[in-house]
Design brief:
mainly alpha; single chain
């Protein structure tokens, strides 16, 4: 026997239900049961979401199409008005020659349009890139390769004028007819397939001649622009992680405690974060060449001061200068890619930059240890100071000059829009706590855990750090490819970030609970999550327009680095409350510090996954 329930309906709905129940074979109970079955179907919400997503995409495409049509209409109208205003009136004798020349130019124009459509290239996009480029030879190469021969050297234009002049006496004049409508034979001749093929021959020959030169220019840009900024970013990561390798000698020579070591390492992140916004504004105003070469000199000064320090305060000041000098490396590299390379190559070059720099950051482990044994930590920092000066000189002397692109006032307005957007603050806590923790642990406390808790010898510890560096490099590539592949199936970067955060939590729990795994396994996951900026950047790209994407990433990066500073310092503060035994802090000290930090990350994760509550009509059932 079916259960009986009472349903309260409004009078209009009850009237409609009574009318529907009068149909043959229909009852009120059957209609209500069918409606509830459809509403409670498990696939109902999924289907509605899929339909809403598709309708939203169609709506966005239609809006973009409407905007494009308006732009085309206004462009055509302005061009027509301009030509009518500046074109002088022709005499009757000159009209046939003008018509012939116009027809020849129109045929060439039609051929160029057909070629552009076939190649799928955008002329306005290439024009903007050529205007922004400062390499004159590259501009000339692209102009010859992409554009048709000029009218002054085009043989068919002169031939068309001569043909019109020769036919002038043979073509009858009709009263009231437009002059350009009196040349049908000439028009047919000019638009024949043979004529079109001949008109394209100079373009194809120019393209064939310029292809080797274009390849040479691309290779030259890689050498002059891409690689110098990659080298600067490698130095930045090397400076960030080097304290994990030299922590032992520093502790022994200066008698540092866990809190001192945490503050010394984390001060790098403090000055790094403080310089992000100012350096970002300067990069937009003056270009990466001047700014990056200048700030690298601060890193060289900091490394020199660090190498000659005889007390903790000088070490702290040197480390702070190093953080200032390394703060612009990533942003300058990304800015250089935007300025000197086509937009379609941007994602690939950005990914290669992060991956190559992460591999370079691996030199802070085993390679740095070899130098540490041979020249000591002071000699190592003297070499890093020399490398910083050399990299600064290479960028200033080799990289071409760039034009200024943005005013500081516009950047300030953009930052205000970003920091007041509620979507930004939904993402920022999770991204900052997870990525900042990964950087803090990778930069110092992983090595201390291996030494104090795992009891690993020096060579095994460095091998684990080297494996973590490789995992960080691979993480950037894997997360970037995964985000791109999942988008094809309608899955954005937000669900992927949720999953990566859960994986990060599991890895930290495995470390805290001492799960019987290879010592490097969970720590490699921790290091890989440090490349989660790939996902955060993709989410910000969905939140903000392209004009604000760079400033949005800089705004979030400030929080990443600030969180790394706080986490690295607070872990040292917590661990310091336990007394070391034979120079090693007990396991419970690290477990407590890591657990407190993990609780904060879990809170940020729950804040991130909270959605906007759905509003709907209230239903009373009994």
């Amino acid at each position: 026997m079916k259960p009986c329930i009472g349903v309260y309906l409004s009078e209009p709905v009850a009237a409609r239900l009574a009318v529907a129940a009068q149909r043959p074979g229909a009852t009120k109970s059957a209609i209500i049961e069918a409606a509830l079955t459809h509403f409670l179907d498990a696939d109902h919400d999924i289907k509605e979401l899929s339909i809403d997503r598709r309708l939203s995409a169609i709506h966005e495409n239609l809006e973009q199409l409407h905007q494009d049509v308006r732009i085309v209409s206004e462009t055509v109208a302005l061009q027509a008005r301009f030509l009518l205003a500046v074109t002088p009136a022709f005499t009757t004798a000159d009209q046939p020659n003008a018509c012939a020349l116009g027809l020849a130019r129109f045929d060439e124009f039609a051929a160029q349009v057909a070629r552009r459509v076939h190649l799928g290239t955008s002329l306005i996009k290439e024009t903007i890139e050529r205007v922004n480029s400062t390499d004159r030879e590259h501009v000339a190469t692209e102009s010859v390769r992409q554009e048709a021969p000029t009218r002054s050297t085009h043989p068919e234009l002169k031939g068309a004028a001569r043909t019109a002049a020769g036919n002038k006496r043979q073509t009858p004049r009709f009263a009231g007819a437009a002059p350009c409508e009196q040349e049908p034979a000439l028009r047919a001749e000019q638009t024949s397939p043979g004529a079109t093929s001949r008109s394209l021959l100079p373009v194809r020959r120019a393209t064939a001649r310029q292809r080797p030169l274009g390849l040479f220019q691309d290779c030259l840009l890689i050498l002059r622009v891409f690689l110098p900024f990659v080298a600067a970013y490698c130095l930045s990561l090397l400076f960030r992680n080097i304290n994990a390798t030299i922590a032992g000698p520093l502790t022994h020579e200066f008698g540092l405690g866990a809190d001192d070591l945490g503050l010394l390492t984390s001060i790098y992140f403090l000055t790094f974060a403080a310089a992000q916004i100012p350096i970002g504004i300067l990069l937009d105003r003056y270009g990466p060449r001047q700014i990056q070469s200048a700030v690298l000199l601060a890193a060289a000064a900091g490394a020199t001061l660090f190498a000659i320090s005889d007390n903790f305060l000088l070490l702290l000041l040197g480390r702070a200068l190093i953080g200032l000098g390394a703060s612009g490396a990533l942003m300058a590299g990304l800015k250089a890619v935007v300025l000197w390379f086509p937009a379609k190559q941007g994602p690939l070059l950005n990914g290669l930059m992060v991956m190559l720099a992460a591999l370079g950051g691996a030199t802070a482990t085993l390679p740095a240890e070899y130098l540490l044994v041979s020249v000591g930590w002071r000699g190592l920092f003297e070499l890093l100071a020399i490398a910083s000066v050399g990299c600064a000189l290479a960028i200033f002397l080799v990289v071409p000059k760039a034009t200024r692109s943005l005013k500081a006032k516009e950047t300030t307005i953009g930052l205000r829009m970003i920091y007041t957007d509620p979507r930004f603050w939904r993402l920022a806590p999770l991204s900052a706590t997870c990525i900042g923790t990964a950087w803090a642990l990778h930069g110092l406390w992983a090595a201390q855990w291996f030494s104090d808790v795992e009891g690993l010898d020096r060579s095994t510890l460095l091998r684990n750090l080297f494996a973590m560096a490789l995992a960080s490099s691979a993480g950037a590539l894997v997360l970037g490819v995964a985000a791109q592949k999942l988008r094809r199936y309608g899955i954005g970067p937000r669900p992927l970030l949720k999953f990566v955060a859960i994986l990060f939590f599991v890895a930290q729990l495995a470390v805290i609970l001492r799960v019987p795994l290879p010592s490097s396994a969970p720590w490699m996951i921790v290091a890989a999550v440090g490349a989660g900026t790939v996902l955060s950047s993709a989410i910000l790209a969905d939140f903000f327009p392209k004009e604000l994407s760079g400033r949005a990433n800089a705004a979030l990066n400030v929080l990443h680095i600030s969180c790394a500073f706080v986490v690295q310092s607070l872990i040292g503060f917590v661990v310091q409350h336990w007394t070391p035994l034979y120079g090693h802090y007990p396991e419970v000290a690290y477990q407590t510090a890591f657990a407190v930090n993990l609780a904060v990350q879990l809170g940020a994760w729950f804040w991130f996954i909270i959605g906007v509550p759905l509003s709907g009509a209230t239903k009373h059932l009994r």
